[in-house]
Amino acid sequence: MEVIEKIKIPLFPLNAVLFPGGALPLRIFEPRYLDMVSDCMKNDSRIGVVLIENGHEAGSAAKAHEVGTISFISYWHKRNDGMLGITLTGEQRFRVISTEVKANQLIIAEVELLPNIEASNNEHNAEQLINLLKQIIAQLEPPYTTMEKFYEDLDWVSARLIELLPLPLIEKQTMLMMSNVTQRINHLQPLLVAMEML
């Protein structure tokens, strides 16, 4: 697989999978992540969202999957409960090469950026997938209702469905690692049929 470049970023291990183009609202309360968010806002730098493989979101550094998504802070506000609310927007997939755990348990990783997903011209029951996504988004709140929509782009449509539907996290991770829309949708469709959504 072609590698574009290597960079160093802080990792945010979560029980969530974010795809490029996706939005992820979060509450930030741990000091290490408050510091991370502050640094990223000050320096306009990026955060790597990765699915936890073993461990927890809070406390000691969790072991995370090696493929994740680089994100930037697209929105922030102070919540009524006093916590910091942010929305991360996914930009590009990456693979972790090496990690270093700081004293505060923040993980800094050297990562290689992965190329954008290959386009596919196949229809893949596109109309069914698009209609399903429109129904789901209509029931949600910002940032999903306010984000720019690309319903003609099957990469965007399938990624949003995977993020928003209650699929097993390991299935979401498996599809994040795929570099071809056809492969991803062929994996997704039987899952949707099993959930009686197609």
Question: What this model shows, in words?
Answer:
The chain is globular. A hairpin with an 8-residue loop joins strand 3 (47-54) and strand 4 (63-64). By secondary structure, the chain is of the alpha+beta class. It has 5 helices and 7 strands. It folds into 2 domains: 6-113, LON domain-like (Archaeosine Trna-guanine Transglycosylase, Chain: A, domain 4), CATH 2.30.130.40; 126-194, no CATH class.
> Which sequence of strands runs across the widest sheet?
1-3-5-6-7
Mean pLDDT across the residues is 91
- Gross morphology: globular
Oligomeric status of the shown chains? single chain
CATH architecture of the largest domain: Roll
Sheet of most strands = 5 strands, mixed, barrel
Number of strands: 7
Element-level helix/strand string: EEHEEEEEHHHH
Task: Give the CATH class of the largest domain.
Answer: Mainly Beta
- Please compute the radius of gyration using only Cα atoms: 17 Å
Characteristics:
30% helix, five-stranded mixed barrel, globular, alpha+beta, 198 residues, Archaeosine Trna-guanine Transglycosylase, Chain: A, domain 4, 2 domains
Summarize the structure in short.
This protein is α+β, with helices and mostly antiparallel strands.
Draw up the topology in text.
Blueprint: E1 6-14, E2 23-28, H1 31-43, E3 47-54, E4 63-64, E5 67-78, E6 84-101, E7 107-113, H2 126-138, H3 154-164, H4 169-176, H5 181-194
Parallel strand pairs: 1-3
Antiparallel strand pairs: 1-7, 2-6, 3-4, 3-5, 5-6, 6-7
Helix pairs in contact: 2-3, 3-5
